[in-house]
Specification:
The protein is of the alpha+beta class. About 35% of the residues lie in helices and about 25% in strands. The chain has four helices and four strands; from the N terminus they run βαβαβααβ. The chain has a four-stranded antiparallel β-sheet with strand order 2-3-1-4.
Length: about 120
Protein backbone atom coordinates (compact mmCIF):
# COMPACT_ATOMS: atom_id res chain seq x y z
CA UNK A 1 0.00 0.00 0.00
CA UNK A 2 1.20 3.49 -0.76
CA UNK A 3 2.08 6.15 1.80
CA UNK A 4 0.32 9.53 1.76
CA UNK A 5 1.42 12.83 3.25
CA UNK A 6 -1.36 15.37 3.65
CA UNK A 7 -1.36 19.14 4.19
CA UNK A 8 -3.89 21.81 5.05
CA UNK A 9 -2.92 25.49 5.00
CA UNK A 10 -4.33 28.98 4.57
CA UNK A 11 -3.24 31.14 1.64
CA UNK A 12 -4.18 34.78 1.07
CA UNK A 13 -6.70 34.69 -1.79
CA UNK A 14 -4.62 37.23 -3.71
CA UNK A 15 -1.66 34.84 -3.66
CA UNK A 16 -3.45 32.07 -5.57
CA UNK A 17 -1.25 32.24 -8.69
CA UNK A 18 1.94 32.80 -6.67
CA UNK A 19 1.02 29.77 -4.55
CA UNK A 20 0.27 27.68 -7.67
CA UNK A 21 3.71 28.48 -9.11
CA UNK A 22 5.39 27.76 -5.75
CA UNK A 23 3.52 24.46 -5.45
CA UNK A 24 4.43 23.50 -9.02
CA UNK A 25 8.15 24.12 -8.31
CA UNK A 26 8.02 22.06 -5.12
CA UNK A 27 5.99 19.30 -6.81
CA UNK A 28 8.60 18.99 -9.55
CA UNK A 29 11.29 18.40 -6.91
CA UNK A 30 9.24 15.87 -4.97
CA UNK A 31 8.39 14.02 -8.21
CA UNK A 32 12.03 14.13 -9.34
CA UNK A 33 13.12 12.46 -6.12
CA UNK A 34 10.39 9.80 -5.91
CA UNK A 35 6.90 11.07 -5.07
CA UNK A 36 4.43 9.33 -7.37
CA UNK A 37 1.73 12.00 -7.19
CA UNK A 38 1.32 15.56 -5.91
CA UNK A 39 -2.15 17.13 -5.70
CA UNK A 40 -2.97 20.73 -4.69
CA UNK A 41 -6.60 21.73 -4.12
CA UNK A 42 -7.83 25.32 -3.70
CA UNK A 43 -10.78 25.64 -1.28
CA UNK A 44 -14.08 26.15 -3.06
CA UNK A 45 -16.72 24.89 -0.60
CA UNK A 46 -15.17 24.92 2.88
CA UNK A 47 -17.99 25.52 5.36
CA UNK A 48 -17.64 26.73 8.92
CA UNK A 49 -18.20 23.89 11.37
CA UNK A 50 -20.07 23.85 14.66
CA UNK A 51 -17.15 22.44 16.67
CA UNK A 52 -14.16 22.46 14.32
CA UNK A 53 -13.39 22.89 10.64
CA UNK A 54 -10.58 23.32 8.12
CA UNK A 55 -10.45 27.12 8.55
CA UNK A 56 -10.13 26.81 12.31
CA UNK A 57 -7.48 24.12 12.04
CA UNK A 58 -5.13 26.50 10.18
CA UNK A 59 -6.40 29.68 11.86
CA UNK A 60 -7.46 31.07 8.49
CA UNK A 61 -7.98 34.81 8.56
CA UNK A 62 -10.37 36.97 6.54
CA UNK A 63 -9.31 36.97 2.91
CA UNK A 64 -7.54 33.60 3.13
CA UNK A 65 -8.48 30.40 1.31
CA UNK A 66 -7.92 26.90 2.68
CA UNK A 67 -5.67 24.67 0.58
CA UNK A 68 -5.81 20.88 0.92
CA UNK A 69 -3.04 18.88 -0.68
CA UNK A 70 -1.37 15.52 -0.59
CA UNK A 71 1.58 13.62 -1.97
CA UNK A 72 1.78 9.89 -2.60
CA UNK A 73 4.84 7.68 -2.19
CA UNK A 74 5.43 3.95 -2.66
CA UNK A 75 6.24 3.64 1.08
CA UNK A 76 7.09 5.59 4.22
CA UNK A 77 10.76 4.74 3.69
CA UNK A 78 10.63 6.30 0.21
CA UNK A 79 8.83 9.36 1.64
CA UNK A 80 11.57 9.78 4.26
CA UNK A 81 14.31 9.49 1.63
CA UNK A 82 12.52 11.90 -0.73
CA UNK A 83 12.13 14.49 2.04
CA UNK A 84 15.80 14.30 2.98
CA UNK A 85 16.84 14.75 -0.65
CA UNK A 86 14.37 17.56 -1.36
CA UNK A 87 15.25 19.50 1.80
CA UNK A 88 18.97 19.33 1.01
CA UNK A 89 18.48 20.38 -2.62
CA UNK A 90 19.66 23.95 -3.39
CA UNK A 91 16.43 24.68 -5.29
CA UNK A 92 14.30 23.95 -2.22
CA UNK A 93 16.71 25.84 0.03
CA UNK A 94 16.27 28.86 -2.26
CA UNK A 95 12.48 28.49 -2.08
CA UNK A 96 12.57 28.42 1.73
CA UNK A 97 15.30 30.99 2.37
CA UNK A 98 13.37 34.10 1.56
CA UNK A 99 14.95 34.55 -1.88
CA UNK A 100 11.48 33.59 -3.13
CA UNK A 101 9.02 34.55 -0.36
CA UNK A 102 6.63 31.84 0.75
CA UNK A 103 3.08 32.72 -0.38
CA UNK A 104 1.57 31.51 2.93
CA UNK A 105 2.32 31.36 6.67
CA UNK A 106 4.02 27.99 7.11
CA UNK A 107 3.58 28.11 10.90
CA UNK A 108 -0.17 27.57 10.42
CA UNK A 109 0.19 24.62 8.06
CA UNK A 110 -0.85 21.23 9.42
CA UNK A 111 0.55 18.05 7.93
CA UNK A 112 1.15 14.41 8.59
CA UNK A 113 1.94 11.05 7.05
CA UNK A 114 -0.64 8.32 6.65
CA UNK A 115 -0.67 4.66 5.72
CA UNK A 116 -3.38 3.70 3.28
CA UNK A 117 -6.31 1.97 4.94
CA UNK A 118 -8.71 1.85 1.99
CA UNK A 119 -8.28 2.85 -1.65
CA UNK A 120 -11.40 2.20 -3.69
Amino acid sequence: MQYVEGFVLAVPAGNREVYRRHAAEAAALFREFGATRVVECWGDDVPDGKVTDFRGAVKAEAGETVVFSWMEFPSKAVRDTVHARVMSDPRMKAMMSGETPMPFDGKRMIYGGFTTLLDS
